[in-house]
Amino acid sequence: MRRLQTVILSLCALGGAAALLPASALAAGGEEELTFEADEAEEIGKTSPPSKTLEIAKKFYDKEDYHSSSIEFFKVIKGETKDSESNRQRAEFFLGKTLYQMQYYAASLAYFDRIVEHGPSHKFYRKTLVWLAALAKVLPESAGILEKIGKYSREDLEDKDLDSVRSELYYYLGRYYFREGNLEEAISLFKSVPEEAKEWFVKAKFFEGITWVLMPNGQEAVGAFKDILVIANTPSKRAQYNPEEMTEYEELANLSMARVFYSTKQFETSIKYYEKIPQNSPDWLNSLFEASWAYFQIKRNSKALGNIHTLNAPYFENEFFPESVVLKAVMYFQYCRYDSALEAVSEYRSVYAPIRDDLRKVVKEHSDDNSEFYRYARKIRDGVGAMPDRVARLAKTALTDRQLLKTWAFVEELDREIKQYDRADKAWKTTAIAAEVLQEISVQKSLAEETAGGLARERLKRLITELTELSRDATTVRVAVLEARKGQIAAEYKKQLISADIRQERILVDDEHQTWSFNGEYWKDELGFYRFRIASQCPRK
């Protein structure tokens, strides 16, 4: 079952959507103290006092004149003053904060990255974690923040200055170890997030569950997902969370539970959780399709075929489930309904084979320049690409992969920062720090476009591979049907008795539902409730 084999991978790419904060927004857990702290003052006394330039820069910062403060901090960093190494490190840290407040988040990250690369000997090494956590809230994950937080040790997170952001740092460092394949350390960090940390607890529990799936340990995975569902189903607890975010993680927990139970062949339980996904969820259609496999496994094919019928409703013309057509052919074959099985095979060939061939041409005709392919992929996503409508719609679904969307989001953020730079004060744009900011944003945008283009190309190639494999599956079904038909013809020729088992699967209706015959017209309130009356035509043994 190809689709369910990849769903966990898609979940692994899950990340919260970034939301831009206003320039006055504080770092997670509170603003870094803006005056020189006592221990810093003591160190200054041991070395040398700050230069007038550094003092002026700090005053500008305190007055929220960030353009002016950025100019003065940059002079210190570039050695235009006689400040000590300790003071230059302070200027570097404050310039990172200044750029954050100016909403040049990518450039801010670049300065904090210098501190991270410098290592523990930098006097602001651990304090930088506060600002990395703040940037993680406004920059997409593809900006590389997890890799920077991953440079820190568990011990670094225990610093008393990080009390207000420790829970989210546990989560981010756990995500880093998860991506690196250090699953045991990832689980340890996810478990360290306390329930009172609210949103971070739910996020950590979700990834803890996914990590247990990969271990694999289904029982522990179910336990982690259930912790989320307990909160979601306890009104007093749920009320303490952001409603939209809680709904998202409740649905993800139910979907993940369904997949865990499917993988352990507990199909009835799996179906129970699939059916908890509401129709207004972005995962509803996926849940219907995946549930159809579970119904198929327990021979409730009337519901499996009903779900597939829903997927083909005109309301979902921009959604594609090519594997469902092959599954339909397999079910008809098992009922010895050979004509219907061959019709399904023909449906797959007529619809998806041409799309696959057109996608091959698209990938082949474009150069290996990933930046150029990114721009082409964006046209597909925005519906302005020059390709047949059905091909464009299927390609678009392949380009909505969560990881790819996060990479595109980073390009869009860099676009925003460049536009902000274009609107900036002309006098500031003539300064050295402004030139460096523009260069940093431009370089990062170029790299992000190349990464996004490479991922888009890989997604389309993967789609082509999947369609090719499904085409082979469809051919296998067709061959099996033709061979079975030959067997029947031979039996009839020999005048052997062949009788059809006409028993139908019972369709039970409770007091809250009614049955209506489908007349070719789809109604929204019927979606997800279709059943097929299907009887076996196989010979009795």
Tally of contiguous helical segments: 24
Q: Total strand count, please?
A: 0
Which term fits the overall shape? elongated
Largest sheet: none
Q: Which structural class should the secondary elements be placed in?
A: mainly alpha
What level of helicity do the residues show? 55-70%
Radius of gyration: 29 Å
**What distance lies between the first and last C-alpha atoms, to the nearest angstrom?**
30 Å
Question: What sequence of helices (H) and strands (E) makes up the elements?
Answer: HHHHHHHHHHHHHHHHHHHHHHHH
Give the overall average pLDDT.
Answer: 84
> What portion of residues belong to β-strands?
under 5%
Low-confidence residue ranges: 1-46, 494-502
Oligomer designation: single chain
Please describe the topology of this protein.
Elements: H1 2-12, H2 38-46, H3 52-62, H4 66-77, H5 85-101, H6 105-118, H7 128-138, H8 145-149, H9 166-180, H10 183-191, H11 199-214, H12 218-232, H13 235-238, H14 243-263, H15 267-274, H16 284-297, H17 301-311, H18 322-334, H19 338-365, H20 370-381, H21 389-398, H22 402-423, H23 426-429, H24 432-493
Helix pairs in contact: 3-4, 4-5, 5-6, 6-7, 9-10, 9-11, 10-11, 11-12, 11-14, 12-14, 14-15, 14-16, 15-16, 16-17, 17-18, 18-19, 18-24, 19-21, 19-24, 20-24, 22-24
Description:
The chain has 541 residues and is an all-alpha fold. 65% of the residues lie in helices and 0% in strands. The protein has helices at 2-12, 38-46, 52-62, 66-77, 85-101, 105-118, 128-138, 145-149, 166-180, 183-191, 199-214, 218-232, 235-238, 243-263, 267-274, 284-297, 301-311, 322-334, 338-365, 370-381, 389-398, 402-423, 426-429, 432-493. Helix 12 (218-232) packs antiparallel against helix 14 (243-263) and helix 22 (402-423) packs antiparallel against helix 24. The two termini are 30 Å apart.
